[in-house]
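Team,

Forwarding the record for the chain on the shared tracking sheet. I've put the sequence and predicted structure together so nobody has to dig through attachments.
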Amino acid sequence: MPTGVAIRDAREQLFDAAERVLLRDGPSALTSRAVTTEAGCAKGVLHRHFADFDAFLAELVLDRIARIDGRAATLRDSAGTGTVADNLADALTDLFASVAVAIVGLVTSRDDLRTRLRRTTPTGIPVLTEATAAIASYLTVERELGRIAAHADVDTLAPTLVGTGHMLFADRKGTPPETGAVRRAVTAVIAGVAREPLR
């Protein structure tokens, strides 16, 4: 790209390029040069927008966490509609069929990145922690509506569901699980507390 030519939405372009590298080649291949090459821009563009590469990665993770927060509201709004199992299966598929699994791999493989992210996610693994909070919030509403038993421990169910979803989708190069497999796993986790038919 010629010097002096402005890039529209440079941050988002760089984030999208990083996602593509991450999904295609994994966390170890994610370098500033790989990102800028994928984005089709000079390396200096990244450093003009971010203090260093770890700052860029932290902003990438925070941007993807913000997307989870947006999806959390949609999930919460689905309470009382459809079935609990279908809503949860759809939410887990939406989460893990995206870049979330690769982001988790990135976070766990870079100590400096984890340290930076501790400012916003002091415990747990960023992305998984926020996903767990979203699932717990949804289950709380369903419990209030009577579709989940009053005694249900949503603070245990939520990480169990997120962990199960992560395991189902964890093979980055493999074929994603079928919808039925995700739903069966969700149904097994909530079987003891669901107050609706589990078809």
